[in-house]
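Protein entry
_____________
===
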Amino acid sequence: MTRTYLGRHVYGLAAILFGIITLDWHDFNNWQQIRALGNVPHREILIYVAATIEIFAGLAIQWTRTARAGALALGSLYLIFALLWVPHILLEPRVFDRWGNFFEQFSLVSGALIVYGSFSQRDSKRPSTAARLGFIFFGICVASFTLEQLVYLSGTASFVPKWIPPGQMFWAIVTTIAFALAAIALLCGRSALLAARLTTAMLIGFGLLVWLPAPLADPHKMINWAGNAQNLAITGATWIVADFLSQKRSTSLAT
């Protein structure tokens, strides 16, 4: 019986969503993914190009034959988005927001690396270097998510719906601890599959409880739409990690 791995499909869907939101939105000055560029001339042209790549690559990654090409295109695009934050990190190395923005985009690069490596033409029983690197990089990104929530704990708490007991700060602390434990598990290789699955579930919870209601409450804020796409993309990348570890374990058991 062939197992179905959904991570890359969710990841690709998020890319398509990013592209559609981009093409439908006209306030290009604050678009999240290229905000680090600043007010460069004709930035809307760059955004249209990026949106087109996201839509077509997001579609390509859905099918086995074109998954590697889709992963390569998305990984390259997200790497550019991540590198755009490097000058800001160098200018303000003590402002963790700059690091956080870099690692959010780099987590998507990690997911693309794993998909690209998992569909390698070489020996399928052994994870490729690209997939292994993607896994390691993702663990580092989860460590960054931990630090970002810790540094901006009050801001994190403000995202938690007020109606969820026992309180906003409680859940901000709990999710920060959860990210920390997941980072340790992924980087140490102990209970990594469980950590990846639980982190995926937590991010799905973020999407359902925090981001999905946001556009319904205020459809005129771009961040409410972009936040959904970003959370879904990181959820997809985390799911890809879980699928990779699950596939790896299944292969080990089979041999």
Notes: Residues 68 and 116 are 5 Å apart (CA to CA). The chain has one domain: 7-128+193-249. The chain is about 75% helix and 0% strand.
